Amino acid sequence: MCELLAASFVVPTRLDPYLERFRARAAENREGWGIAWWRDGGPEIHKEPIPADESALAARLVDEHPTSAMFLVHVRAATIGERTLPNTHPWAAPALGRTWVFAHNGTVRALDRLDLGDRNPTGDTDSERAFLHLLTRLEAQPPESSDDAAGLADAVHAVGRELSTHDSRVNFLCTDGTTLFAYHDGHKTLHLLERSDGVIVASVPLTDEPGWTRLAAGAFVVAAGGRLVARSDGD
């Protein structure tokens, strides 16, 4: 399966320990890897359609000790779409006056039901189409203001539930650099760790420390500023 990892920290934090551990997960996910982190107000994205544990770029990023208060990582085991750069997670696109980044684990079925608006996918995956559908939905029914975090969370959650229909399998992480959203429909696993320095979400626990909890089917998690701000434990 693909695997997901993301974190919201209280302050910019060194990412290399997390990247190094997550690179090891490429042993079972050979179709690509990607990472996004925020600095200077926008996302910096690096990705390749090769195994992370064979990537000189991934190794160099670990050695450079990047820091950020928000990051998202994906390693890919493809179900739909060839092993190409346009099909490699994560993707970034604008909506509601900000840049969003998205990564997905699972399979979204009945793609003809998805509304992409005037957005054009760069590749041919179901995951990227799900992302563009999410952004189209957010712009069609935007929250009352850009500061309406609760309204934004409700909208993202609703799209997660919608995508999970038609026998689809949907785990996704998305963020606008300020708020991290995680949806888990029960496909495979997604785990949550709350610490004093931040909130981490991962397909499988990334460390041996206590406190990791397995999210229930239908769970939805929202984190910002290194704190858990909302959690629904199932539909």
**Distance linking N and C termini:** 24 Å
- Silhouette: globular
Continuous helix count: 4
Q: Please bin the fraction of helical residues.
A: 10-25%
Cα gyration radius (Å)? 16 Å
Count of all domains: 1
CATH topology: Glutamine Phosphoribosylpyrophosphate, subunit 1, domain 1
The CATH homologous superfamily is termed Aminohydrolase, N-terminal nucleophile (Ntn) domain
Please state the average pLDDT score.
91
Specify the biggest β-sheet.
7 strands, antiparallel
Task: Please report which band the strand proportion falls in: under 5%, 5-15%, 15-25%, 25-35%, 35-45% or over 45%.
Answer: 35-45%
What is the count of β-strands? 13
Low-confidence stretches: none
> Would you tell me the structural class of the helices and strands?
alpha+beta
**Shape-level CATH architecture:** 4-Layer Sandwich
**Spatial strand arrangement across the major sheet:** 3-2-4-1-10-9-11
Secondary-structure element order, N to C: EHEEHEEEHHEEEEEEE
Describe this structure in words.
With 235 residues, the chain is α+β, with helices and mostly antiparallel strands. It has a single domain, classed as Aminohydrolase, N-terminal nucleophile (Ntn) domain (Glutamine Phosphoribosylpyrophosphate, subunit 1, domain 1), CATH 3.60.20. 20% of the residues lie in helices and 37% in strands. A 7-stranded antiparallel sheet has the order 3-2-4-1-10-9-11, with helices on one face. Strands 5-6-7-8-12-13 form a 6-stranded antiparallel sheet, with helices on one face. It is globular.
